[in-house]
Queue: 3 jobs
Job 1
Amino acid sequence: MTREAAPPVDPHGPSLRPGRRNLSERAESRAAIAALLGFAVTAVAVAAVGWGGRAPLSGQGSIGTHAAWLTAGTTAVAFLVSFVGTARDGGAEWRRELPLIKRIIDLVALTAAVAAVSALGIEALAALFQAAFVGLTVDPLGGGALAGAASAALTYFASGFGSRVTTEGIAVLATSTLFIGTLASMLSSPDARWWELHFSQLGNQQGESAAAFNSSLILAGLVIIAIADYAAHDVGRGLRTRGEAEGLPATPLELRSAERSDRTASPDRTIARRTAITAWLFIAIGIMMCIAGLVHDAVNSFVHVGAASGMVVAFGLLAIFTLFGLPGLPHGYRALTIGVLLGTVVAILLWIPLGYYNLTGVEFISAGLIFAWFIVFTRIVGAYAEHDPDLAR
């Protein structure tokens, strides 16, 4: 009796488990169906609205405006259905342990952000093409086809994102929400010299410019609050896979406290404490950003400035905590984090006391550094959760 030969080993890694493969297949199936429905709904609606005439690509009553609103709806529904469907299929089971209210807030925030980014993206693309094709108008059938194609593409990506929500993906979504919303506000601002004061001046005005800026702050803040649980989950996995559950040294502060009390801190409690710190610092940043968007500078300068300053302080605490509280992070990340912290301090010093530029310059540089760090951190912490032995080298 001969033994059967073992199946060949994939040199690129283990194959997907049947359950995981089925999840991926269902996700792709949902995304394809969502894209087709997004095309059909948007194309028919845009063609029906513009029937009997021709419309420009951008501007009031344009193809771009109609497509933006419709695509916001199709992407929101596609993301929502995909996110909930994946959860019911067994994906991200750890989220079931979260309080129901937190899961609802996360879902609403992510859905709204996906819709907003999609709508603003359509508007920006339409404006770009209108600037390139000056005076161009399109008939209803052509306009419907263009709008449907753009909607289908974004709806497909929204559905795919809903099936594979990761810490990095949410960070990119938060950054995109704030960047696109702020850019839209800058381009539509009635005050061409707003930059002589600060970015908050965009939110002090009336009309679409203020609404775009303030809403982007609120949405980005809510999305950062959603990041909290994902980042904390990755941190907890990373700590456990590094043997933290077997009693690796805690932070220096915890060690000194344990020595004074003549007892050793429980490793499980240490992990829980560090994951909670990670989550609450992200939540603090998100809450401060929401407050800055809800209470703009013209309404209450003290609250607005306090929230903006608190956001920077919370970020600094989070960055410092990752340096000392998360063992095994790569040296490159540590160097980057120190560089971002120093860069933020230098940016402030260039404003006060050196007077090199105004407050707008400080906000521009600081926001760029902080959100770039967010994306790098979420990528690093994703790898941290997988416990790559070469990560810390």
Job 2
Amino acid sequence: MKRPIAMAFAITLIAATQAGADQLTIREFRSVPLSRPNLTVPRSSATSDAISGVRKQETSTSEPDPYLLFPVAGVIDQDLYIAYYVDLDSGPGVLAFNCSKLSYDGNTGDDPYIRGFREEDIGVPVFAAIGGTVAGVHNGEPDHNTDMNPARIANHVAILHGTNQVADYVHLRKDTLVQVGDVVTAGTQIGWVGSSGQSSGPHVHFESQLAGVPYEAMAGPCRAGRSNFSVQPNVSMNPFVAGVALSSNTFDNPPLPPDDSIITTGTFIKGSQNVYLRIDIANVSSATDYTLQLTSPAGTVSSATGIFSQYQQEFLAASFWLTMQLDTTGTWTLKLSVGGTKTEIPFRVVNASTEIVNHPPNPLSASIDPISAGGVAVCRANSVLLADPDYDVVAYSYVWTANGSIVRTVTSAARADALPQQYANAHNQLTCTVSAFDGLAQTPPSQAFAEVSPAPARRHAAGH
């Protein structure tokens, strides 16, 4: 059983206090960063020339046209996390659009991360956030990088909208889907999330430029004016759990994530067991504490508490080595509480290894966001945080139709997908059918339906 998780190098070991330790003992706890700043964004010379040429063509004080969707598939603050935003501080400090410190000095883009190389290998689509002409492409570079080597060139795509607005998509997987000169609409898939160039793990550096000058598309209390998204994504500043995994094997031995080949499980054999727990968590401060509570089928409770990190962490992985006295068969539950967020982590205890079987992914329901003519339709695979009871990586199959004809099929590790703008004509009938697959078992498909409504009056969204 498999699980996508990304981890760099162990940086801290913190002891925990415990109660009821006869059933639950934390033997070891480590936390490591999942995101690290890219101090440079190396591009190919051809793409750099294309982008710099925009500045030479025209300067402008006009506002950029709005993006019609966030360019990376997934659900922000669930299976997708924006670790860094454009640095709005002109000095040595850092300042993000929402007045947080979620940036690094001189950052020129927004940096959404996924959780590991298994998700990258299944595929997480990258879409054109706005239509235009492909002005630059670089492809073929290694895309499982973790060493942050500033000399590495990233796979990337640059799209020119009009004469002076550029969107640049950097660190892509090496199989980009467009070529220079292609004309694309918003919502067209242009590539896949990768870890090419100077990168610690799979993510995208999404850079917006107007007349050659980078800008922050998000609006907020520290970035006045209108948002450059037609509907600006909501982002949370509270700690939240993005992923969970259980295993009979430690997560701390090589190969370390983002190489996430550790076999996961949701079933253990009765008796004293070493259980390894992995938590992917975002928005962690140096004071973020946790409580782990183990509840047996009989209702017996043991607990342990500690802190996640000695440092401020945008996105980290915490791995626990737990010893559990699993004296009863049935369903046990670990309850994790982090900064007011509570997550239940169920697992099964059986008498013998012959009772350990694969379970299909948890049920899901498909939905399509409300869509107006000229927009981009987004389909969501709605499920619980724990997509699979065995903590397997889950692949989602999306099949889109427009007026009864199949217009897009894709297999993705993301919990959302998009349809190119040209299918959003008034009164078009759209369907999206989604199922989840863990490599052995598949969920029943779920279908969503939407009719494209006539276009409302054009407007920019107000900043959040």
Job 3
Amino acid sequence: MKKGAGKTVQARQLGRHLRNMRKEAGFTIEEAAAELGISGPTLYRIEVGASVPRPPDVRTLR
């Protein structure tokens, strides 16, 4: 396994969890991103595990 591969798996798991929570709340990506003060593409990258949210972003998500 490549070094850092575990972080990728964790990022995808987190993204999947966040996407499920967003959908359960009835928000589109665009609506949720606007509420969070981030762009739609940024939220999309977090949800697919391509980007790991920064600590301030995680606090906003709570």
